[in-house]
Structures are given as structure tokens and as C-alpha cells.
Queue: 3 jobs
Job 1
Amino acid sequence: MNVKVSGVVLGTLVIGIVASGCGDQSGVEDAVGVAAAPSGCSQEIPSIPEGTEFVPWSSRLTVAGAPTEFAVQPVPKDGSLPAAVPHQLGGFPVVASSVAGAVTTAAFGARFAPGATQSSFLRDGGLILTLTPAQPTGSIANGMADDSDTGDRVSMSTVGSYAAAVTWADPDASGLRPHHVLWTDRSAGVDVNLAGVRSAAELVGIAREFSCH
């Protein structure tokens, strides 16, 4: 089952980026309606429970064709980057990026090989962030948690002053299952999706590094 929620497909790599500061966290509502604590910027991250349900590649009702090339371009020699893209994340430099309409994507890793797919880039240890415009109100994380089709696939955390959804993708054709951390940066008006082959807690830590720098 591929479930699409606000532009994000569990089991498919639809990924994005934004940067914002932690700011004042008092009074911010998290997924269960209580104020998000300053722990949203802490690197002391409690264990994140995860569901064990997933859909094997061979059991999907619909599957995509052959993996397509990762549509990002290497960082120019002059080092110029799209707005809001940091030079480093999770210990890796930014190696490629793209802007397609209103969506910005950035790839962080040891290297970027032309012709790589998103799956192969993540398999090599890379991180991908994507930024897409958010709806005027609401939170992508809370929406995913409340949705009857996706709620049992979502664990909740906080990133900065925002509720964050943590998901574990269905395996792709090669068996890869990246984690995703998704949140709405309301101050910037964007939904953020960070993907990587990391533990859920480690990826939340990287998301906090990004949001709380």
C-alpha cells in the first residue's frame, strides 16, 4: 500500500528542505495538544516506537517502473546554493541540489555520482531534504497521525517547536527502507521532509540540527 498524504507517499521518495531557528517554543501545540517542550532542539532523543507493518515490494497493488535518475545537479564550482540550503548536514557537505517550481531538493553525502537514483544515493549513506509549500493552516505531521490510512505507520516526535512525524518507508525493489522525518515549519510556510537510511532517533537528531542551528 502506497499512501499519499499532503504530497508525501509512504514507500516512495518525495523529499524536501527548509531552515529555521528554534525560536520561542512556549505555547506551541504538538500532535496531542500539549505545549512542545524545548526538548525539540535537544540531541537527547528518547527511543521512538515503530510499527512493524509494511507492504513488501512484491505485494504492492501498483509499482513504479525502473528507478529514474535523481533529478538534482552537482553544486556549482562557485559554491552557490538555493535559498535555505545549508552547506552541511549530518556530517556531510551538500553535493547536489535542484529547484523545480516551488520545490527545493538538496542532497548531502560523501559524493554525488551523475546518473544516481534517489535509492542508490540513500543506500550510499546520503541524506535528502525537500521543501514544499505548506497549506495555509495545519501540520503535515498531525495530518498524517490523524489519518486513518497512515496513523498506524507514524510515530510522533518534535523538531524545534513543531510536531514531527517519523515514518519508515515500505521497501523498494532493492529492499531499501529509509526513514523520513516530516514537519511543517509554519514560520517559513513550508513542509519539510528529511530522508535517510538511519535509525529513527538519529534522523530526528539530524532534523533538529537542521531546524535549531
Job 2
Amino acid sequence: MAIIEFLDSTLSGDLAPLDVEADAIIRAYLKRNPDTAYRLTMRAMTEAAAVAPPAAPVQRVNKSWLSAIFERRLPAVS
């Protein structure tokens, strides 16, 4: 799933025009070395993860069960 998400996000949006000569070189190399596509994708994912901003930390509030009961707000009675 992570590979599909990475490829979708990489290939979405505005992309630079295709360099036909570079594309031909890459395609020829991939034809000679079939496992290259996998290795390039894994390396790109690793490098993208290294430059991505860290996820925001999850803030947990440790409260006792008793304080949680007293902090509950009851609806006003009219």
C-alpha cells in the first residue's frame, strides 16, 4: 500500500516536461535490469521519508478515572 501511495503522490500534480533522451536511457536500463524499478522506488521512498517533516506528536493527557468523572459536564436542567 505504501508503494502505491508513494507513486500516486509522486505522479500527481504539475510535473516537469518529460526529457525524452533521459526517458529512453532509463527505459533501456530498466529493460536490461528488471529489478531496477523496485530498487529505485525503495530508494526514493527512503529519501523522501528522510526529508519529510516529522509527524506531530500525539498529546496525551493522563488523568485519573476520578478526575475524568468530575470534569464531565452535565447538561443544564431547565
Job 3
Amino acid sequence: MTRQTVSVVIPVRDGERYLSEAIESALGQDHRPLEVIVVDDGSTDRSAEIAGAHAGIRLIRTPNRGPSAARNTGLAAARGGVVAYLDADDILLPDSVAGRLRVLEEEPETGVVLGRMRLRREPGTPKVAPIPRRGKDAFEGVPAAAAIVRRPVAARVPFDESMRLGEDLDWLFRMRDAGVGIRVLDREVLVHRLHDRNLSLQGRAYAGALTTSLGARLRERRERGG
């Protein structure tokens, strides 16, 4: 049986500190065939230079339009039948792609597969409470921006380019609203760094922006009874 090509899409904006390790974790996946696409979202640091120094990756440079647009750009360029998303400061575990792809191959009704994350707190970063696991289909502790998804499904439900905060969770909600089967594996699939530039650690500013960006969609879902 022909093995599916998986396209790993990494959006980056001024991510020179951790980008190389993210790329290496993608290139180091157990699964083949695999392509790695880095979409540089108007970085002002050395992100594009760092990405371009890695053999075996495709680099796309765009003006700054936000992470949603960067992921959609990578999706449009992908050659694989399955797309895996990875943030530029995270690290895929070696069997992350192969393990989740196996679920897609065994479950035709499933369009998106996610897993849990292992937190890595960088020096100087505040401690955070452990994320509760509230059920096999709950999204708590699930890195939505590190999903693996069938490319036709991703094309049908792209990321909302008007959103720069909470866009990954919004994307999952819209996937569910569209009737896409979503599987959450109860095992870790990546390492998520906690560092001084994590938006989610920037307190009230992040909370306020997230409430604003997601509020309208959540109200709409309540009105529909979703």
C-alpha cells in the first residue's frame, strides 16, 4: 500500500529563538514520505534565514498577516494528502505524525486527530497549574494548532484570517460545527514551551483579546443551541 505524504506546516513570526528545534523535530519524524513547509509571516528577525539553512524544507515568505493566514498559505502549498500543523516554538515527539496518521487511516469518519502536550517551562517563566483532562473528547490541554488533518477537510474549513488570538480553538469549534469527526488521543504528541513571549502567559491583555475575538462566535453558537 502506498504511504500517504504528510505535509508539516510551521508558521513563524520572529521565532528565531526556537524555530530550528521545531524544524528538526518535524524532519525527525518516523513517518515518510514527509514534507516540511515553513511560512515566514513577515518576520523582522533571522527566522527566514534559519529556516532556509535547513536542507529538505520549503520556505514561503509573506507579509505579516497573522498565524491563520500563514497556516492557510502553507495548506495551499502542501502536496500531501494529510497536513500536520506545528507552532514554531513547539517540538513534535518522534512518533507524533505516524501515530496520529494511523488513526486517520483506521477511521475514515475521522477528519482531525489531536493529542496531549507536555509542558516545558523555560527559565524565568511563571509556573502554571496542570491542565485537567476532562474526558476523551474534551479540548482542555489539547494543542489545537498542532492538529493533523485530512487536506480536503482543512481546505473546507480553513483558519479564520480575521483572527489573531484564539484562532486555533475557533477552528476546532468550526470543524465540529461542520460535522467533522475529531479524535483526541490520550497521549502526548508534542512539547509545548512556556516562555516570555507566550500570549497565553501575558495575563489580562491576552484574556481580554481572547474574549473579544471568540465572544461573537460563542454567542452565535449559544443562539443556535450548539
